C-alpha cells in the first residue's frame, strides 16, 4: 500500500497503457511506478538497455504488463518504432509522458552551439517526436499526453539558458497540441516539478551551491519527492481530469512564487561553476539607472 492507493482506487487506470520517455530513472520512473500501482500497464523508453531492464524488474513486481524500448528521443524513426513496439506489447496507449531530458549548468557566453542544441534536441525536439509518433495511438484511445516542463521555462536561472529555452518551447508545444488535438479528444498538459530530492536533475543543479538556496525559496520549505509529481500525473491521466487540457501544473511547493533570485545569488557567490564563470562581471557594480 502507498499514499496513492490509500487515496485512489488501485484499479483507477486498470485496462489502460502508458508510455513514458526517460522512464528508466528519477521522476519518470516514479511516474511509471504510480501508473502501475493503480493498474495501468507501462512501457518505458530510454537510451540505456541496462537501466531500462533494472527499472522494468521493479515495475513487474507490481503485477502489470511492462515493456521496454531502447530509443533516443532525438531520433524520430526510433521513436516510431518504440511506440509501435510498446503498443504491440501492452495495448493501445492512452497516456504518453514526454519526460526525457538533459541538463547541465553552463554559462551562455561559454556554451558551444552543440551544447545548446543538444538540450533543445533532447527536450524540445524529443518531446515533439514523442507526441507525433504517439498521435495515432492517442487518437484511437482519446488519450492524453503530459510533458515534463520546469521552472526555468518562465523564471530566469543563471547557466540554464538552454534548458529554459527548451522547456519554454515544450510549454508552447503543449498548448498548441491542446488546441490542435482537442477535437480528437486528446488532452495535452504539462507538469512543472520544482526541486525534487534524490534526482539526477537536482544533483546537477545543487552541486555547486547545496540545497539551501533552493529550499529557502520554497514556501513549503522542503524539496518534493518523485512520488508527489507522479501522483499528479496519475490524476491528470484519469477521468478525474477529463476537462483539463492546455494546463501547466506546478508541483513545486510554491517555488515559482519566490522565483530564481536566491539560487542565482548563490551561484554568483559560488564563483565558479564547472570550473567556468565568473569573470568578475557579476560582482562588479551594476550600471546606474538614471533617475
Ligand atoms: N558544460 C558545457 N557544455 C556541455 C556540458 C557541460 N557540463 N556537458 C555537455 N556539454 C555540451 C558539449 O558542448 C558537448 O559537445 P562536445 O562533445 O563538443 O563537447 C554537447 O553538450 C553534447 O554532449 P554529449 O555528452 O556528447 O551529449 P550526450 O547526448 O551524450 O548527452 C547530456 C547529453 C550532455 C545532456 C548528458 O548530460 C546526458 O545524457 N544527460 C541525461 C541525464 C540528465 O541530464 N538528467 C537531468 C535531467 S533534468
Ligand atoms: P533523470 O533521472 O536523469 O531522467 C532523465 C531520463 O531521460 C533518464 O532516464 C535518461 O535515460 C532519459 N534520457 C536522457 N536523454 C535521453 C534521450 N536522448 N533519449 C531517451 N531518453 C533520454 O532526471 P530527473 O531529474 O528525474 O528528471 C526527469 C524530468 O523531470 C526531466 O524532464 C527534467 O527536466 C524534469 N525536472 C526535474 C526536476 C528535478 O528536480 N529533478 C525539476 C524540474 C523538472 P538514459 O540516459 O538512459 O537515456
UniProtKB/TrEMBL annotation:
Q: Say yes or no: keyword Oxidoreductase present.
A: yes
UniProt key word NADP: yes
Which InterPro entries does its entry note? DECR2-like, NAD(P)-bd_dom_sf, SDR_fam
Sorted keywords for this record are:
NADP, Oxidoreductase
Family annotation (PANTHER family): PEROXISOMAL 2,4-DIENOYL-COA REDUCTASE, PEROXISOMAL 2,4-DIENOYL-COA REDUCTASE [(3E)-ENOYL-COA-PRODUCING]
Write the protein's name: SDR family oxidoreductase
Originating organism = Mycobacterium lentiflavum
